[in-house]
Amino acid sequence: MGNARYDDSAWRNYSARSTDGKTRDQIFSQRQMHADLDPTKIKAREAVDSAANPETTPIILAADETGSMGVLAEQIIRGSLGDIMKELYDRKPVTDPQILCAGVGDVNCDHAPLQVTQFEAAADVLGEQVKNIWLEGNGGGNNGESYPIVWLFAARKVIADAFRKRSKKGYIFTIGDEQPHTAPMTPEQVRNFVGLDLQGPFDAKSALIEAQANWHVFHLIVKPVTHQPVLATWKRLLDERAIVVDNIQNLAAGIVSTIQLIEGHDPRAGWTGTDIAVVEHVTAQLSATA
After folding, report:
1. 271 Cβ partners below 8 Å, 6+ apart?
2. In angstroms, rounded to a whole number, what is the distance separating the alpha carbons of residues 97 and 238?
3. Burial of 227 by CB count in 10 Å (0-12 exposed, 13-18 middle, 19+ buried)?
């Protein structure tokens, strides 16, 4: 997929047409897993080079869709997705970005703890797929969500020319307010929710190690729940790459400046207004990684 490029005016027109005057439930009207987003029905998601995008860079944005975190998906469709693409095109920290969006829940209690779009460069095309994510809104009240399922999917079910042609890593950003489940997923859970047959349990650390072979892996912590050791648990897994972002309105600045820093660009240049505070906050947290 991704045989087009980002057009800012097309995105703005699409976003306004799809969201203006509508509630979250009206935007995200799906009430069950959409077949096109079901990982068990997907052999692989591809981020491959084309005439429009000759040197693709795969980027995964995976938002917690449980409970109050449905606001993340809403923020993405109302503006952040276009903001991220525009800043990536304008600042050029990577070549030909293609984005896959995912909804993440809890393998222990949700019907659809992972839902994945195609990789796309045209944000309006991607937006149509994002609207098909089912905001199941459950979560289990069990002190965590299944963010590591994204790493497993990325490691086992993504084909990217960046990896196989250029030995270039992509980027994964999971986003949410809870700590990750670090207990292993059972073979049944992996089969039922990812469509993979594994011989034994698969834990968060194992999924992370596999993903890191081809991906820069980050988690953005937004409004962490107070009854969990959210930051401490994430830091044990990702160290500096677990980043606190105080304002979801500035997701684009946090994500793009992170990519700039890893790619050796000056992440502070050109940002203004409330974005610069976010950029400086993210940069300070990532200094050791850089």
Report:
1. 253, 257, 279
2. 24
3. exposed
pLDDT of residue 189: 97
Please list the residues that pair with 29 across neighbouring strands: none
Nearest residue to 60 via CA among 47, 49, 69, 48: 47
**CA–CA distance, 38 with 30 (Å, rounded to integer):** 13
pLDDT at 265: 93
Q: Which CATH class is domain 8-255?
A: alpha beta
Closest CA relative to residue 218, chosen from 190, 195, 245, 188: 245
- CA-to-CA distance for 72 and 97, rounded, in angstroms? 21
The DSSP line for 164-228 is HHH---EEEEEEESSPBP-SPBPHHHHHHHT----SS-B-HHHHHHHHHTTEEEEEEE-S--TTS
Retrieve residue 140's tokens: 């289990």
Asked if 170 and 216 count as a contact pair (C-beta separation under 8 A), the reply is yes
Supply angle C-alpha 284, 218, 171, rounded to 5: 115
What proportion of the chain, given as a percentage, has pLDDT over 70? Answer: 96
**Token digits for 242?**
């677990």
| 174 backbone dihedrals φ, ψ, rounded to 5° | -90, 150
Contacts of 242 (CB under 8 A, 6+ apart): 218, 219, 221, 231, 234, 235
Residue 102 has pLDDT above 80, yes or no: yes
Delimit the domains of the chain by residue range: 8-255
Q: Phi/psi class of residue 104: alpha, beta or left (left: φ > 0; alpha: ψ in -120 to 50)?
A: beta
Amino acid found at 34: H
